[in-house]
């Protein structure tokens, strides 16, 4: 696919991703300049979705690395398959092979367990590499990522340096549990995604929940936006508002009444406190619509 | 092309002047980004933002500067009209003319119309931007919230359509508030911080948890590691750690909630309350002229017995009360954290009692929300107290308060 701004916009549309110019430009640049894209924003605003949409758009494989505290190279890049190596060693011993012969193939690709990062680099096809919630990983891991992100290469002592054949499209997401290092920020293009506005959310709902009444979609989008403004613990994500809209259509609700909202609020709010808070304010929230 | 390049460089200079960190690599990225995205104004803005702005809190600065710098044909009239009030003439729209010459492929050396005077004006403008940024910084700390609201209303509508939002604005606001000294807090600011507090508490808890986690793993015991390695032919296969010393901390918090420091105290008590899960024994007290157990019920500070909010603070008397209850409250594991300005309304300071109390517990720390220059002036007895305690930590704004709290834990 030839990469122009227009083709990116078109691709996003085809992948059913409703968004604004800011996101479109950032995605286009990430593709055109072949730079990693760092996406920040509140939970549930569609950060991870970007990577999924990109992979669909480019027809590329999506490789996902979920970060967590204590994630290390062995889990992210590669690991030797010890069990297999041991078996091989024992088998070879019976045949009376010399050490030189054994060691030669013990450390070959056959005995290497590819983890997501190595897989993304060594794949002959274009891939989309999603490094999810990088802020949850330790700082050491972040430093380790730097080499990979700037040169798209990794070194394995026994095999040498492995360079990417085709550069993967890299998307990093962060919820800002911790501040990322300046070095990492410098190497990435930055994109901040916030919750969509009412109009945009309505579009998303209509697109992803086929058969929803247009008026109901608008009302639902307005209500969700109102909830987000009340300062609840955990704002409802886009996925949750989609679930909610689906539930509403499934229940055959045509109009948002207090009872209808109350009976389905569990889909939007997952904290008891939040729920109580919103139920209390329900009258004013509905009136504000 | 070279003129466009210079223009972008100058823009980045102004960004830096306004306090945004931009590296050389990012500058190059910005050039490439503009080259790829083209000269459509909105698209160019997003492209440059993606390459240059790595913190959403900097985005308003970027948008404001961009609006003034690369004024488009439509906005040009507006900015000019706006400027006419303060300055006789200005030269926005430079970008446009250069963009055109770039498109038409004119010679590079050809000077843009009125090139010389423009650069003069430009530097004038950059100076203006600098002072603007500086005065903004000052104002942010000094002005009252009413003025602030007005200013946000005045901000050029050029920034971003209503689409963007809640979270970004909240974050940027939190950063400003974190640096606002407590003494400049009005009730409005306090309410605002309270709204933002859950996020702060979460961050504090995460950081605290991580530090305590590291402390739990413990340090490597070198001798035992070496000895264990001998069994394996000298290779350091498994590391032996020193057994973690049982370290119990009883946190005792005394917070002055009298008028002068009440915001700081309430925020600190709430931070401590939020991090309770990580601390084994915590007792919180609020005081003005006497001690009262403090607790948070549904986000409100509740003291038992109730405190007379109009009393004048008297830490000497509080110390006497503390001393009377020393058997319950003070032991070898106690870390006492006192928050207050040490202003005693010229009543007996009783620093001797503080010395005795400090002797009974592991450490006494004092958080003071006052400027160092004002310590010991007027009715402040802080210098007398300072001699008796382990550490005196300034906590003039949220940022310092949080840092001080982490030090304690």
CATH superfamily of the largest domain in chain B, please? von Willebrand factor, type A domain
How would you classify the helix and strand content of chain A by structural class?
alpha/beta
Biggest β-sheet of chain B: count, sense, barrel? 7 strands, mixed
Q: Any idea how many domains of chain B?
A: 2
Distance between the termini of chain A: 43 Å
Proportion of residues in extended strands of chain B:
5-15%
Average of per-residue pLDDT values of chain B: 71
* Number of distinct helices of chain B: 17
Highest CATH level, the class of the largest domain in chain B = Alpha Beta
Output the radius of gyration of chain A: 24 Å
H/E series of chain B, N to C? HHHHHHHHHHHEHEEEHHEHEHEH
CATH homologous superfamily title of the largest domain in chain A: P-loop containing nucleotide triphosphate hydrolases
Count of folded domains of chain A: 3
Name of the CATH class of the largest domain in chain A: Alpha Beta
State the total count of DSSP E strands of chain B: 7
Largest sheet of chain A: 5 strands, parallel
Shape of chain B: globular
What is the name of the CATH architecture of the largest domain in chain A? 3-Layer(aba) Sandwich
**Major sheet of chain B: order of its strands?**
4-3-2-1-5-6-7
Order of helices and strands of chain A: HHEHEHEHHEHEHEEEHEHHHHH
Q: Describe it for me?
A:
The complex is a heterodimer of chains A (289) and B (409). By secondary structure, chain A is of the alpha/beta class. Helices cover 52% and strands 14% of the residues of chain A. Chain A is built from 14 helices and 9 strands. Chain A has helices spanning 5-14, 21-33, 47-58, 73-76, 82-94, 99-106, 116-122, 139-151, 182-187, 198-208, 214-229, 238-250, 258-264, 272-288; strands at residues 37-40, 61-66, 78-80, 112-114, 127-132, 153-156, 160-163, 169-174, 189-192. Chain B has 409 residues and is an alpha/beta fold. Chain B has helices spanning 2-17, 24-37, 41-52, 59-69, 73-86, 94-103, 115-142, 145-154, 166-179, 187-217, 222-230, 262-274, 315-324, 326-329, 351-360, 382-386, 398-408; strands spanning 250-256, 281-287, 291-297, 300-304, 334-339, 363-368, 391-394. A 7-stranded mixed sheet of chain B has the order 4-3-2-1-5-6-7, with helices on both faces. The A-B interface holds A 5, 20-22, 24-26, 28-29, 32-33, 35, 38, 40-42, 45, 69, 177-178, 182, 185-192, 194-197, 200, 228-229, 231, 233 and B 21, 23, 25-26, 29, 32-33, 36-38, 42-43, 46-47, 49-51, 53-56, 59, 162-168, 195, 198, 203, 206-207, 210.
